[in-house]
Batch of 4 targets.
Target 1
Amino acid sequence: MNHRFLSIVGLAAAMAFTGGCSVNKQTKATPAVEPVTGKPAVEVAEPPVWAPKNHAFNPSKTRVHDLLHTKLRVSFDWDKQYLHGIAELTLKPYFYPQNKLVLDAKGFDIHSVNLMNGFDAKELQYIYDGMKLTIDLDKTYTRNDKYLIEIDYTAKPNELAVGGSDAITEDKGLYFINPKGEEPNKPRQIWTQGETEANSAWFPTIDSPNERMTQELYITVDQQFTTLSNGTFVYSRKNPNGTKTDYWKMEQAHAPYLTMMAIGEYAVVKDKWRDLEVNYYVEPAYEKTAKKIFGNTPEMLEFFSKKLGVDYPWSKYSQVVVRDFVSGAMENTSASTFMEDLQLNERELLDKNWDGIIAHELFHQWFGNYVTTESWANLPLNEAFANYSEYLWTEHKYGADEAAFHHLDELGQYLDESESKREPLIRYRYADREDMFDSHSYAKGGRVLHMLRKYVGDEAFFSSLNRYLTQNKFSDVEVAELRMAFEDTTGEDLMWFFDQWFLRAGHPELKVSHTYQNGALALQVWQQQDTIYQPVYRLPLKVAVWENGKKAEHSIEITKANQVFNLPVDAEPQLVLFDSEQQLLGTVEHAKTAEELEFQFNNAGGLAAKLAALEELEKELSQQEMVSLLQGVLKDEFWAVRNLALDVAGRLPAKQTETLEPIVKRIAESDAKGEVRAGAIMLLSEWGDDEYSELYKKAMEDDSYKVAAAGILGYAMTEAPDINQRLASFEKETNEEIVLALASYYAVKGGAKKYDWFMKQMKNAKGAGLYYLLQSYGAFMAVNPEAYTPEAIGMLAELAQEHRLYYVRMAAFQTLMVHSERPEIVELLKEIRANEQDKRLLELYNQVAL
């Protein structure tokens, strides 16, 4: 499961209400008074806001029965959004004799439960509480006895209470999209989402990650629909009533949460890897670009299979795009599901590729599906590996700088989250299993694997992964089994590594200094993290030292809170680069002179060291010196360096930028990267020179939507008399970049006549695009009281109460607050708050005084 996109949006939405993330500060509590002596007690520091919480222990689920096989026959009532199902479950007691069976079955109507013996059915007694189905078996069965249960039921997913997380915004399992065909420009679809334990909302099962089953699925739908499920497509049979039944068979065992269906009118674009079927299911409008979106999949399959020494283990690999998905993507066995954002036209492909998320879900086919975490407490055994696959693929396909940029982005996501939350990666004490889907399990987990790879070396790392996969295939695992695979491969006891990185909270916060005196280099390292909640780390690292232009690398191992290392040198170093591989998960404060930083930028080589040097030089150099440096940096070979240079240039006073302006203009006109061209255009517009009107007009015609959107915003800032005329020519565009650029201008300068445009866009927008559009509409309402109409309020109220994405509901609530001085709006907001069930929103809404 990939959640990065949604977690970032969730953070942004939360900040809109809370005013941003608070800085971690340990405040002192008021001193207590000792009851006998009357003397002040020792002051006790309050725990930091990120301190790990002591929730109840969550073990893996006890296996009472073993679910061996599931056969499902399903059909649908689109109008009621029901699934009619007959489930045949083959089970046996796991170890101890049993005369009762308890199944997860959420929100069903149970019509009958029978024990089957061939075609003979024996009715069984049961108790059903809406969540658990408890069946009295006809006798006591031993672990040598198999039995077959048939359950006739109706699933009603829309009648379930909604839960979810930042990664998976809803958990009702089965979703009907545009079921009555009443929404224009939206296809009718049905799809499922099982993680964490939501598949039991559409079929009865033992909904636990430490269960494994084979399966058969008979899907009856109207003949115009295409179906997809796990495993192999066996046949399609036409029925007398005009429907068809598609039969899918999964002969290799997998966890119940990985069972999937997707139903819709799809173009199926065929590809292959070796002799394996690889298919891409997209809406017909994207048939021609499907291979440009997903076309690296066969190369990924080959790359990962060879790296791991374990060939892709399933009978096919399909990827399907669905509307209104509740996550970024999901790694269902042999059939991954993706959000609609992956569907791109030719122009959009100029600015975007989705290789990261595609690699992520594919790597799960090994880590998560072939070998599965035994409990949600061990989720990083799935997600950390999938996260790290993005780095591996980027490194292989796009090179070291792109991989380093990805690494920095992931590290930043974890460090941002660590300001308010620090938990062990493997954490048995959580309030809700959905809390596991965070930047710890993903971003931190991926960075920990990177450190492990650096420590043991590439050959040992991938040999260990091969051992882990081979020894644990088609089974469930906990973190000790990963550790033992590495120990058995390397011969080294790695408990110290797994303890501090997987089982303990936090990260090292280091302060580093170096001094050269009398021919000796002393490197001092302080571990400054709060060791009440975090360990003193053992950190094997490399330190690079440059003397007279030559680099020497030294291995050190930090084991103490305060430690000094004496490194051999012959002359005063030009640069000391701590953690020269830039692989440490943590923070490092290392003061350097401007000369050292310039040397680092020009000579250190790695992207992370280069970007860090540029950011520090902005603080150390005079404005004139910075301008001189940027003249070269703006021509750097790597796009992210040029982007950062544009940001730095944008923070300089306008009078200092005359020599940079021609360089920025050339970037705006001809940089190979659309994102960089767009950034240069925006910088020119911020500098306020109307002389670039022609450049903005040309940018508006650029093939890159990012550049065209920047051109729109740049031209809008010139206040040219034909602005409205030129912008109006883009109003039929559906691309999100263009729509949001127009919305930014129309919110302030469009006037009341743009009301209809805003209403149309809000009806068509989706996901994050709708979230940001609502921000602009809130500004539009504030400037144009005429926009306060029953139609607008009704739309916002509907979004705030019914939209399936929690952050869109939050944005609509926030937009309504623009007119919270009106009594009727206050009452509406109170009603929305009273009816909201999502705990994340309630926590924020309750902070708002109404």
Note: Residues 3-41 have pLDDT under 50 and may be disordered.
Target 2
Amino acid sequence: MSQSQPRALGLATRFAARELRAGLSGFRILIACLALGVAAIAAIGSVRGAIEAGLAREGAAMLGGDAELSLTYRFADAAERAWMQDRATAVSEIAEFRSMAVLGEDRVLTQVKAVDAAYPLIGELALSPDIPLSQALAGDDLPGAVMAPALIARLGAETGDRVEIGGTAFRLMAALESEPDANASGFSLGPRTLVASSALAGTPLLAPGTLFDSRYRLSLPPGTDLAALEAEAEARFSDSGIRWRDARNGAPGIQAFVERLSAFLVLVGLAGLAVGGVGVSAAVRAYLAGKIGIIATLKTLGASGRVILLTYGLQIGALSLIGILLGLALGALLPLLVAPILSALLPVPAEFGLYPGALAEAALYGALTAALFTLWPLARVEEIRAAQLFRDPGAGQALPRPAFLAVLVLLALALAGSAALLSGAASLTLWAFAGILAALLLLALAARALRAAAARLGALSRGRPALRWSLAAIAGPGTEVLPVILSLGLGLSVLASVGQIDGNMRAAIAEELPTRAPSFFAVDIQPDQIPAFLERTEGDAAVSRVDRAPMLRGVITRINGAPAREVAGDHWVLRGDRGVSYAGALPDNTTVTSGTWWPEGYSGPPQVSVSAEEGAELGLKLGDKLTVNILGRDIEAEITSFREVDFSTAGMGFILVMNEAALAGAPHSWIATIYAERAAEAPLLRDLGRDFPNVTAISVREAIALVTDLLDSIAAATSWGAAITLVTGFLVLIGAALSGERARAYEAAVLKSLGASRARILASFALRAALMGAGAGLVALLAGILGAWAICHFVLETSYAVIWPNALAVVLGGLALNLAAGLIFAWRPLSARPAQVLRAQD
């Protein structure tokens, strides 16, 4: 360090300390904007940390064991059981499937769990009445069943009633109040029923070919290396279709959902920080504008540009640190204060506390945002000469030196890169940053366009003095247009995007799907039941269409002889078992996009047709060989065609369809989709339940209702995040109004001296605020529509239409917010005495 550098730093520190003694005047908005943005991100991270800690702590209890191996449509064979028993101190076998619970005329879909005597290995169930599970499942004259209270209520059942499940009779012995491994099964379409596995022996519920999952929970010796055992299991069972889970991630579906939702909320929080950054920049600009005389004096006395930069940089850095620390304190304390409420609302355990990682992440974002938005106005004053400052108070408008521009670019890249790295959703984060940057550029251009339009229209507003004055204020020097448009516009853009996405998702569920989707899925139809099943359904005049297909489940284990994941990565098709069907001749509703379908009656080496979209994503081509494990048997088939599969209709669709000879000999059942008029659904369900008790009918409307409930929770969370962004924008508006209060007081004094009434001056202020608010709202609407379209089209892959009520609310909201902020700070300038204001200005 040269001799001048420590001296410059020493002088700057002394000057900064002296100026800070004057208090925080002019910087309250800066501190509030940073604090609010950092607090939102810190609170989101803290809640995520609490959930992850709870899942880790209760991982074994939520899973029901230290580890779990699961299979589809079959139980473990002797060799697989022996491997588990050799490594575990206890093993519990569970089978899960969907069926219909029937009491009298009432039929309700239920998720059945058939358990053995060892269940549960970890944790305790709570039953009402409080009896041992073994006693409840033993029953009396009939095997016992335990049902969730919601299922009991929907059936109108009471303890002791005879209930049928899939045609098998059970005695309802108790209500299932709590289940330690309730979240281990993931998404469920029906309330829970527990029965003993022994009660299902000889029944069609677990017959070969029926749809069920078998799960083997393992209690392991203390100190077992779960990672090493997982690697051993994957090597041993790589081609058998067995899937591994353990206590390190007892509820992977929930954890993945939490991570995705929190990543999205952090992005909303970063948008709020960007809005706050606009306020920070405006506050710094206004503060430096008020220090023009001091800066000019210091430069006249020989202070270098470095000293000036360090003086105000140290001040703003110290105040930014205060804002960040306040935000961290608020973000850490808020989840602790509402922990009892959140714990009751969350479906998973949460361990609330202080999470340094989440706080450090929020602090990093806050520091980078503060540096990014303060460096520009700071850097512009370094190279300005004293004479310029004395002659022209608006002279600090030159671009910063290239070195500062390079630092600004590096700060922006650091902010985007750290968010992409820490969020766990790098692609989504980078696209979100690109969207925020595009919105800021669009808003900045809109602010410039609004000033130009105001200048042109000002000449045409003769005879309307209030309008002319407002247009002149918008077009003139020192205007508030840029900070207002940027802050309010970005906040409204986020809100508009959230509203448009939510509206389109609800429209897709509530309007599109019911017109195209089937009324029911019917599963576990045995092959010999197909003729009678079709006679009842296709013979009903209220049924417009019945589609059916054989149904198996398989795991793609290899592609061209190599492990599938090594070839195609972690694609969702490879993460578990997928539906597999077979067909002879080309079905009527199938469109082949490339290749050829096998001829009817083909009995040669197995061939497979793959969904075209998923095949392209996996990098598959005609002639490739897929190895699919079905019921523990590997089948290698050549890809001879690709075909269109539209999953958006909620109808029947299979990733893989093989030739009939390849699969017809395997135990399997059939699946059917039934399209019926709504009035015919109840009689149809009743007749199918009576004639085919083993068949499970799944209502598409009930499944849609569950998805709608999930959307409600997501929309609520994102709306709160967007609201925080908008509140930050409102703070920036207040800051802009405060910084322009002196100019409005001078303007009002001049107009009063020329004979203008207070009412007309107030109308001018109101028109100015309304025009800027409406401009911000219109641009935000455009940005929100474009952003929502991009997310719906590229991420959610749904259709998109503008939700005009939401759009109108955004424009009116922008107008109202800026009008409110403008009028709040209009009274003091109007009340000031003109002579006093004009003398002070001189």
Note: The first strand starts at residue 67 and ends at 72.
Target 3
Amino acid sequence: MSVAALLAGCGTLSGSDGEGGGPVRVGTTSQPSSLDPADAWDGSWELYRNTFQSLMHIPKSSGAPEADAAEKCEFTDRKSQVYRCTLQEGLKFSSGNALDAEAVKHSFDRIRQIDSAKGPAPLLESIDEVETSGDRTVIFHLKRSDATFPLVLTTPAGSLVDPAEYPLKQLRRGNELTGSGPYRLAEYEPGRLAQLERNDSYKGAAELKNDTVEIHYFKKSGGLVKALRDEKIDLVYRGLTPDQITSLKDGTAGSDIRLDEVVGTEIRYLAFNPQDEAVSDPAVREAMAQLLDRGALVRKVYRRTAEPLYSMVPSGITGHTSAFFDRFGAPSRAKAEKLLTDAGIDEPVEFTLWYTTDRYGATMKAEFEEIQRQLNDSELFRVKVRGQEWESFQKAHRRGEYPVFGRGWFPDFPDADNYIGPFVGENNVLGIPYEEAELTGRILPASRQESDRGTAARDLQEAQKILAKDVRLLPLWQGRVYVAAKEDIAGVEWAIDTSTLMRAWELHRKGSW
């Protein structure tokens, strides 16, 4: 599942001896929305992965969590409700301040207390209390059994921050960042550049193959390949359009550019707000699910650089099913019309379908226009499409202003639970409460008692059937990961972790390490 890492990290690297032509410059369209880990649960994690440290990490050799800032971590009870971590000795933040047990407690308490609407507090919802014992021991008391908790600790939701720099009850503003990860943020120009330099006080699992990382942010995909051809950047990650990928595949973009492709775990989906009158009737949502032709969508818009998806859990993740195909089968206007007429809906359903213009690449507009075309051509719907910038888009859908909107999801960790749990419950990532007695009251709690995630998959398959029954979420497609790099860039195959975040420290110029 090395796909994940590339999605998150983007960096520029150089050999410590200064050879190899300088830093490796990486281009991406995914720029941070915030430098504070308490305030972002999005592409900002790409930067956090390389500058902040977590108690646990997932090594490139397996998908099982191992200690990072911690020396060891383990459940100390049979119910998976008490998790104890012992820190390494002598840990420090890039500020020079000690990273001790109190700093760890502060980091987790802070995210939960601030509870930013854009932040990862829902991912830490199972924590009841964080306790310290001495300078090096942290004990997490959980509200209920949660065998996925070690996986949660590998994510940037578990980023450890310096209490002297990050107040307990308020967000840190400005363009500075203080962590204990492999790199320190040496320079930051919002929307343009993040320059990372080796953190000499870092003590963790990462073995740096470079000293410097540059991340160049592009607002639009159009300039990415041109910048690569013009040697202004050396590697492109996230933001390539289907046309650009095609030109890279056939060599027209440049013979010295290599394209790496891996089956990915990114998904795209539609979310419904059942409080909105336009889609409050389940029959409306079911009719959309019955009409949608995912094959045509990925063929026309994505030129087969993505795969149709029939569950919120993508293929390649243990427990995946095709729940939506099992329920709705092939696209059918006749079946969609019957669903509506049986519900007493005889007029075309009208609403606006919303997407974000600056988060998921240049193809979003074409994607949503194709969905609009499919729905309107059926004459059962009369849909408009509108786009909005990410900052405003997030706030608006959390306020319940959109009846239907599109989002993407990159997994926090490689478990089917992470494609279900974040979207359900009272406080979910979408800001639209989704309480379902069986799903949130029985199935997910039962699955989280299973330390064997293969066994838990049975419950999670049942959860996918409920999602297909309710149609509160409508999966569209599963992406592939494409990374374009100059031939002299090495380490790409190791740079993607299971959380879809980049290990920038793996990248280097051939011959420089």
Note: Residues 398 and 432 are 7 Å apart (CA to CA).
Target 4
Amino acid sequence: MDRRSFLIAGGLTSLAATGMTAEPAHAAQASKPLRINAGFLAVDLSDTGRVAGLRDLRTGTDYVAPGKSVPLVSVVLGDGRQETPTRVQISPRDPKVLVFSSDNATVEVKVVKYPTYTTLEVVSLTAASGVDVQTLLWGPLPTKVTQTVGECAGVLRDDAFALGLRPLNDKTVGSWPNEHRSFGFGPDIFDNPYSLQVDIHVEWSAAAKTTWGSILRAYTYDYSKVRVRQRTSGYEIPLGPLPGPEGRIIGSKVALFGSGPDLVLTVLSQIAQEQGLEYPTLGGQWQKTAQRTSQSHFWVHDLNTSTVIAASQYAKQAGIKNIYAISGNGPWISHGHYQFNSALGGSDENAAKLVATAAKEGIEVGVHTLSDFIDSGDPYVSPPPADSRLSTGLTVKLTRPLAASDTSLYVDSGKPLGPGVQGKRLRIGDEFITYTGLTQAGATEWQVTGLARGQWGSSAQLYPASTGVDRIIENSYGGAIGDLPIIDEIATRLAAAYNNTGIQATSYDGLESASETGWGAYGFARLVNGVYRQLDAKDGFISETSRMSSNTWDAQSRASWGEIGYTDYTQVIKNNIFYSANYLPPMMGQQGLSGSSTLQMIETTLAHAASLDAGVNFETSVRSLASGSNTAAVLQAIRIWESARKAGAFTTEQKMLLADPNKYWHLSEGTPDQEWSLQQLDSAGNPIGEAQPVKAPEPGFTTPTPPDARVGELYAFKTTSSTPQTIRYEVTSGALPAGLALNKDTGGVIGIPRKAGASRFTITARNDGAVPDASVSYTLKVKPDNEG
């Protein structure tokens, strides 16, 4: 192990683990290398602030990618130049502050160490006279990890070690600016390493896979004045200004950590709780560890006030606890203002009555949304005047007058009307206009042809030369999308709708629209986190999403991509590899279900779901279930398969068999929720061979004896229940060694022991009531810090 002397930023904890001694922290020693300890990760910095090492403190293994030298912190100036520090030193005023200096800018970063992670926060940024600092870049930290890249979780791992970076507020965006890809290894990045069909996620991700390894990164943009941002297409969109601290780089904040792979969720749980991030729960259990997060739902196309009881009863027959309004992309008069339509009673008050009716049947209700899509009939658009806060590109000006009857117009620039965003729609005053063609008519003039005047309920008008013309950015259905103030209003409205009605599940379908405004992952955060923060009851609320970002990872429950039958099963498996890499629950996507569905089709989906331990969104309708002859059989099959899956009854070997796309299976029930029989079938439904027993595991623990700890050194150990029905872990007798704590959601035991000796304690896995609790007792020895 490298045994150079290091100055230690963020405290002296874990020095015994490194075998090094701390030097006095003062400016005269600024030439010595610096080290930031973050859990089991040591970030070594050169005297110019460049990342010189990313070491596992336990083994000394250096994970920094060879030949990839980057500054930990840099800035981009208003003219597009990257300004990298020429020196870094510990502040003489505060030993927790690192000062990164260059000719044009000085950035002060406060380093605060917690046992399992360390936070870095920009507390001061000063620029030379006349210098405009536009962007602050964190890294990207280059690693040689290739095994698993959790793009949205911001976690890289192999079998021995995990490194992570988490953005700690909305304005610290866990991804990279499109304008500055060349500063972040852009040509080396795999845009879609998991071959996702739904969309590439690299644009919104704190981690990325490269040709030589992987990176961790984040940035904060200065919006104290209007900035022109670029989408991935290169299209330019003016944004801002944002008021107060939200528009400034100061306050940009990330958490760094290193841990064993099995302790990642424990560290992420601690970061979220201690740093005030979103922490959705189900029955008090963190959703990232709750099996219920992957529960199956019924997506009911004709859910309304007259069908809610029948829909609830069908769901109960299938063992499903949530019915979800999907018809017309949700039960709304229009997307934008999100007022309930007549299906749910036309008001929050009547929707609450529908929810209460379902609750009497033991069923929860969810609703589908289209995020910040704005329908053409929504009040944000129609009738005139349209809201001025719709998302637009750069403004151009008429070079000639435009009469009400004209079908072509002339403007002073063509680029804002060219490719790069969806739709060909303009707004002049209160009039919406679509066009078909754009050609250059002169040195500084462009002709726009094929005009359709007076769109979206507006009327054609006369406009003089020099009138401003805005390019409207459309959503994928041909409507508008809202800029940030409308995104905030939609977040407030959706939260109010859920608070007023008791709705407990939702989607953010079309969430990419919040990024297409130009705001990127920051737009995601303002919508998704904005809804979560305004919920009155955060426990029990499940959200799905069409896209996942690092800035919404904490608040979002799950993704469930693909329509089974249209989406190839191979793609569903790829999706679930992505979910696993990002600590999201396994999900199958949507499966069509009717009363005429064949038992073989449904059981094939359920077998694949069991192989992945994945939930399914069953798309159905009361009408189809009521009229079909096979309804009772398929609902019973869902209930039986789901009960076995929830019990964790399938062995690893059985899951491998169930994953085979060329095999057919039937599961029958023995003792409810305890024993089943699994029979292979041929394509005609005839048995093949003998049936296999399927049995729920006995409640207990699968954890080995904990290793010894040492005073003053970070200690980590994970207890693991044998059943997925565990909802929390508790110390029920004795006590952990002083300095250690048990995470109730993950079973991780972690901390820094303060006193030598042996401690005996009992940990109990509290299960969901369907199976008994289980307990295990341990003796943990803490060695003195001077013992070999």
Note: The chain has a mean pLDDT of 94.
